[in-house]
Amino acid sequence: MQQAKSIPLSKPSSHMPPFTPTQARYLSFIHAYITGFGQPPAESEIAEAMRVSAPSVNQMIKTLEKKGLIRRQPGVARTIEVLVPAESLPPWNKKMVRTVYQWMPMAPQAAGEQRDSHGEAGMIYQLKITLLGIEPPIWRQIETPDVTLAELHELIQTAMGWTNSHLHQFEIDGGRYVDEWLLQDDFDDNDAMGYSGVWLSDFINPDQPTLSLRYEYDFGDGWEHSVELEQVKSAAPGVRYPRCTAGARACPPEDVGGIYGYAQCIAALADPEHEEHEQYLEWVGRYDPAAFDLNRTTRALRRGLPGT
């Protein structure tokens, strides 16, 4: 970091805007990742490589895009394209490791089947997931066997319709639970706990089964969800889990700018005379905020995480 301060701005060509040494490091990592893995990194992977917070990555990506150094498809996961010639970037000499792994989808469980968990065998948790701060509400009701918090993250992502492109955390009973790699010594997240091996049932008293937790996704846009345990019940004969049993409205587009950006996007799309109507139409494409498909959501729950 000390050397970076003394390096002058880079300027690869007369047609490419200059970029700082810090921006060059980001561009170098993204280029190396694409070369090595055949697809752009997720923001969580950039955060780990740069050893910075998620909001810092989110802001840097927006800056690089605004300067014309990268290009993205807004609302689509893993679409970063580096516009700077590779020969103009410093080499990325650090170890290149994927930190967002392919999730093996939870096999649908029929009633009566056994699954390793801490909860009572054969019991199903009915959860209501609501995206906070938006009216009319965007919500899903799902049913699942006992799951780890890592699996619950996957269920929330797929049920809501997110693309697993950003960092996330749980807040439960006053504690914060995050993915393990965030707890590395050189990452400033010391008040959180890793959620490896932590189960949903660890927070539920069988005699008084209640639970309310918060799930935050994309620390830049700040999407907060409430997750409420509605009931614990026996698995129904012949039913396969997990499944979505109810819900309403479509998930917001990724990177739309949080609650206020979403409101602006919806207003612009709904009004052909709006000054940003064409811009949002080109960005988001065909987007119906009222759309929700129950069967498609259940299929998504069983396929697993997107964008990994």
Annotation keywords:
308 residues, alpha+beta, Structural Genomics Hypothetical 15.5 Kd Protein In mrcA-pckA Intergenic Region, Chain A, eight-stranded mixed sheet, 19% strand, disordered N terminus
Molecular structure report:
Strand 9 and strand 10 form a beta hairpin. The model is unreliable at 1-13 and 100-104 (pLDDT under 50). The protein has helices at residues 2-6, 21-37, 43-50, 54-66, 149-160, 258-270, 277-284, 294-303; strands at 70-71, 81-82, 109-110, 123-131, 138-144, 168-172, 175-178, 193-194, 212-217, 223-234, 240-241, 243-248. Helix content is 28%, strand content 19%. It is globular and about 65 Å long. Strands 8-7-6-9-10-4-5-12 form an 8-stranded mixed β-sheet, with helices on one face. The protein has 308 residues and is α+β, with helices and mostly antiparallel strands. The chain has 2 domains: 2-88, Arc Repressor Mutant, subunit A (Orthogonal Bundle); 110-249 and 292-303, MM3350-like (Structural Genomics Hypothetical 15.5 Kd Protein In mrcA-pckA Intergenic Region, Chain A, Roll), CATH 3.10.290.30. It contains 8 helices and 12 strands.
